[in-house]
Amino acid sequence: MSEDVIPGSPVDWELEGPGALRDGTPIWVRPVRPTDRNDLMDFVAHVSTDSLEMRYFAATRPETAVEEMLRGSPAEDRVSLLAVGGVQGGPRVLGQGEYVLDRADPSTAEAAFLVRDAWHGYGIGTVLLHWLAQIARGRGVHRFVVYVQPTNRPMLDVVRNSGFPVVESEEGYVLRIDLSIVEPPSALPFAESGHATAG
Questions:
Q1: Amino acid 119: pLDDT
Q2: DSSP code of 169?
Q3: CATH assignment of the domain containing 192
Q4: Cis link prior to 10 (omega < 30° from 0)?
């Protein structure tokens, strides 16, 4: 990855570092920053209205999605990461993932993801999931809950093939998927680099 993708030092290695996709493409994973508004607007401009609706479970304007990604929360309650790749024209946000702690059960957090449509299937969601799981595990979280619409095949593939133990149940018109993240996955679906495979 070109140096202009990597944020300036010092780097918080708990929250950011290099990763690799299924085809070996290098990416950089880092937290969402308040200065990311323009980059996030470019990101959601390359996400279809159907993908936004599957992520937010309602028709969602791009501007609203960006505000949600930039939403501030106490650091202990929410971690929001970006997958950034060097593509033609410079670094671009390829995906976003986050978890939000369940205050009623601090061992559980809800996780959600959004990936550029043209980059589905490259492993971006998987990289973000493993990064978030390692961060959360280090902070005492034992389980992720992911709500997925049954038609959201890309997200279903991510969670079902994540390497974590999975329990699925139906809640109304959506699937609730519980992932045990107490231990790192025994086998990764593809070779990642950096933080996601360190622990």
A1: 93
A2: E
A3: 3.40.630.30
A4: yes
